[in-house]
Design goal:
The chain has one domain. It has a four-stranded antiparallel beta sheet with strand order 3-2-1-4, with no helix packed on it. The chain is an alpha+beta fold. The radius of gyration is 17 Å and the shape is globular. It contains five helices and four strands.
């Protein structure tokens, strides 16, 4: 699966997902908010580095639509009817993977910000002496992409493979 993050004005961005399993998905806007690390790019890197198989991107690769919708209007209507008639509840493992992705993203970004000098201290919920080992690897991945993202012009993109 290919995921393309395209920079918009300010901290806005779009995400396009091109996958082999499931309906073709329409691009969507990301929540923005960070000039170096778009939220959805952070989750991609967290899930890839931590081996989280049923987070946002693992589920998308497996055919789930997640927060996206099918590009084809007929497929979109079919998916909406299916969701309405049989709401799909994530498995316990998928819920645990999503929670782990959120937890690691919530730790790794402030650690990256402190290490790069964008923040002076870690938030109270992050203890530098109790960081899981995977956080250092995630922060390295964030570092590999942050300056590249920040330097992109509006309309420029980063493509990653899941």
């Amino acid at each position: 699966m290919r995921v393309v993050f395209t920079k918009g004005p300010g901290t806005s961005y779009d995400i396009s997902v091109h996958r082999e399993t499931g309906a073709a998905l329409a691009p969507r806007n990301g929540p923005g908010g960070h000039p170096y690390l778009p939220h959805d790019l952070v989750h991609f890197l967290v899930e890839a580095e931590a081996g989280i198989g049923l987070g946002v991107y693992g589920r998308l690769a497996a055919g789930d639509n997640g927060l996206f919708w099918p590009a084809d209007p007929a497929e979109r209507n079919k998916a909406a009817r299916r969701r309405k008639s049989k709401p799909v509840q994530p498995s316990p493992q998928a819920r645990a993977d999503m929670a782990r992705s959120e937890e690691l993203a919530g730790i790794a970004v402030p650690v990256w910000e402190v290490r790069r000098g964008h923040a002076k201290t870690l938030p109270a919920y992050v203890r530098a002496d109790e960081l899981p080992p995977v956080v250092d690897r995630i922060v390295t991945r964030l570092d590999e992409h942050a300056d590249r993202w920040h330097a992109l012009p509006v309309g420029g993109s980063i493509e990653l493979t899941w």
